[in-house]
Amino acid sequence: QNVTQTVEEEKPEPPTVQEIKQKIEKYNAKVTNCLLMKLNDDGTYTGFIKVHLKLRRPVTVPAGIRPQSIYDALKEVNLADTTDKRTSFYLPLDAIKQLHISSTTTVSEVIQGLLKKFMVVDNPQKFALFKEMRKDGQVLFQKLPLTEYPLYLRLLAGPDTDVLTFVLKENETGEVEWDAFSIPELQNFLMILDKEEKDKIQQVQRKYEKFKQRLQQTLKEARGKPG
Known about the structure:
Keywords: Apoptosis, Coiled coil, Cytoplasm, Cytoskeleton, Metal-binding, Microtubule, Phosphoprotein, Zinc, Zinc-finger. The protein is of the alpha+beta class.
């Protein structure tokens, strides 16, 4: 059972550098994949988080753009800015992206970073980052505030993703706010829905055509039997 909740918790006092150091040492002692956290001289720290993408609606990306190369990444080339053409498609269900972030990286920056890596040009406000936890046989989703620090949550929970997982989902506020989409986006959605409808119709037709053939074969065999 999935239960979605909104995070409305009072912020505790920020930990001291010594407390952070102790937590990082405890965290790193449990790491089995070399993805350690590192404490910096200024008291900040860096580490890795994994984000599961569970998007039910298509996203908008530049049309005809090749994947980003290492050269583009080093030069901070934004390939999405090289064309005005747009297309929409579904990201693979439950795709996982690993991010190297800082303790000062906010939820808002994580969302923007994920969209940039996948070259998604949709408004970041259409998406939200959730933390997924398991308790008493339930899967609990809590929407994180944009100012929250995901790496600190990872540090507190430890490296075990069964205890805490980050999930990117649509920013559901009830009914879909279609006014937030541009006309090209809406047109692309209609094209995708039309294609899905035709594919579904063909699946149903093939299913009943096979059923019809089996019935006809059964009747033919029955007529050929004596009595």
